[in-house]
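Worked Example 4.2. Consider the chain below.
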Amino acid sequence: MTPTTESTSTRSAIAPTDAALATRTLTVSGMHCGACAGNVERALRALPGVTEAAVNVTTERARVAFDPALADEAALSKAVAGAGYTIEAITTPRDPRVATSGNERARVREAQGRVFFAWLFTLPIMLIMAGSWGFGAPWPSPVLHKLLMVVLAFPVLFVVGAETFRAGFRGLSGLHRGNANMDLLIALGTLAAYGSGVASLLTPMTSFAGVAAMIMAFHLTGRYLETRAKGRAASAIRGLLELGAKEASILVDDVEQRVAIELIEVGTLVLVRPGEKIPVDGRVVEGNSTADESMATGESIPVAKEPGAEVIGATVNQHGRLVIEATRIGADTFLAQIVRMVEECQTTKVPIQQLADRVTGVFVPASLITATATLVAWLLLPDFMASLARRAAAVLPWVNADLGSVSLAVFAAVAVLVIACPCALGLATPTALTVGSGRGARAGVLFRSGAALQALVEADVVLLDKTGTVTLGRPEVVELRTAAGVDEAELLRAAVGVEQASEHPLASAIREAAATRSIAPPPVEQFEAVVGRGAHGMVDGIHVVVGSAAWLRERRVDLAALDIGIDELERAAMTTVVVARAGRALGVLGIADPVKPGARSAIQALHDAGLTTTMLTGDNRRTAEAIASSVGITEVRAQLLPADKLEAIRQLQATGKRVVMVGDGINDAPALTQADVGVAIGTGTDIAIQAADVTLVHGELAGVAAAIKLARATFRVIRQNLFWAFFYNLVAIPLAIAGLLHPVIAEVAMALSSLTVVGNALRLRRVSL
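Applying the procedure from the previous section yields the following structure tokens:
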């Protein structure tokens, strides 16, 4: 895995490097099924310079990587148009706009209108059929009955169903290239059925024109419901976009102006009142408040904001007035980066999808061959083929074995064409991936690729960096031991008096501990820092020394009363800082990088999920083992350089283990890249996040278990969808060949199978993380 998302495994030796490739996200309309997505992919991959193309039929997006010296956006548009589809938008990874279709609602309304018009003519057909069944003969007369079927079916098929025919016959022209789609099966099936109606006006053949109208009406209804359901499945990015502010109040020479969010530049001062959304990422320069950052982190607890604090665009300022300096705008904002990662995940493919792609790629031509073979078999062997139908006629009211051989052949062939549409198979994986990645984004778990989801499901061991991952990543005073007659406030006041002038990380911990207890640092004079030892100076006119026990002993300070406390703190893997005033020891401070709240329960959740955990750290073994023991990690590998972490992962992979690496620092980037799944703590560095496959926005270890839980739930849904999609076709097609499946029932079953797949995927929106 490289910082870009394009796979390098399938590229030739002369292919350009990732840095030389351009990436575009295309919004493509007109796709209805997995075969449509395959057509678009093949059209794009056929272009010179295109190294990768992945299409998600649910989100109607295609992600393309290409060499700009050999291809451009115009070529991409031409290729997609040549395959029979339309590009509505083309965006770049750095484009603050996102490739969402602005015509989604219009398409839903258009589909709804087609359904209304189709049923306006189909319902009278059904009433006429019901009348004929009631009278036991064609109603109102045999000739008029056939004529009405043909006339009423015409607008259903060739007016509102025209788009299905156009799409289908575009697929027919590309059949020899494997570019056929599911609409071709519906078009041929309804056309054959309607043709029987026209022929029945001149011959004794049974008319299926009314059946053709019913098939098309149910098909359009299914498309309408499917469009709405896919819109819900693909709503994650749209919902994220809606979180952002559209306008902001800026300060120009202390004068407030209301402007569009696009006009804000880095360095602009933005005024945010209580209850308003923070419009951009920035830094507080004036005011105090709290912000609801649940949108970004999934945590409902408000975060305090004061001058110097970082704020995230699209979060909500709760109480006080804030003035913010914009630091990131447009495509660089936190929200834009989240949207980009979700899009990247949804337009990549998981390995399990390859089987479904191969099947859908051959299903249409195989279905045409099967339907043709069925027609021929019924025409050449009518008695043999009708033998089963005669036995089933007693229990299946739509089976009429007394029809003529041509009518029975058409009946069976049309049923095969309609039922064979593998729409559910094409929707099974991308729909689940779309909903699952969207659910993760709302919980602060961002997947960079679909392959990362599958790799998480197969993981055996989780390796965790210590500093910033298991621990908070900053030193804190966690314990104080005072000499007789000295209280903690006196000890801290003397220590912070000296350390207020120091730049050492331990000094920062002492200053923070004093501030937490509202202890103001007294003035210091004659300050001097001694590298590796400590510091000293005059505090309130008295000489104070702060440093290691060894240094204070060298200065002849008696530490006998503190020896037990110092030893206990050091055995607990704390760094000890001794404080002495006027040559007398006041006490010792135990400083450590504390374990993150909830780390122990997060590790236990990983163990409960059947995973083993190991800590990898560059720290000393005693400190590492103490931290590991406190959170329940049983194996520790300490004093490791970045190359050592890399080798540790390779050793595990050589034994067949699937490895998850969790880290947050620059030194973790190689290990995150080498692991089967790299998980970056979102509060860490940009380099670590770019190298990872999964990013935990809120920075808590509990997100690792949540990511694994979501990945397992997503793949459980994918497997269920694939099983039922395959099972549906394997059972239904033989019934259609035998003449036991009415074409209308076949169309209803086909539409319901697609809706079932989408509905099953939508359950992922309710997964508890």
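The chain is about 50% helix and 20% strand. Confidence is low (pLDDT under 50) at residues 1-17, 96-102. Compare this with Example 4.1 before moving on.
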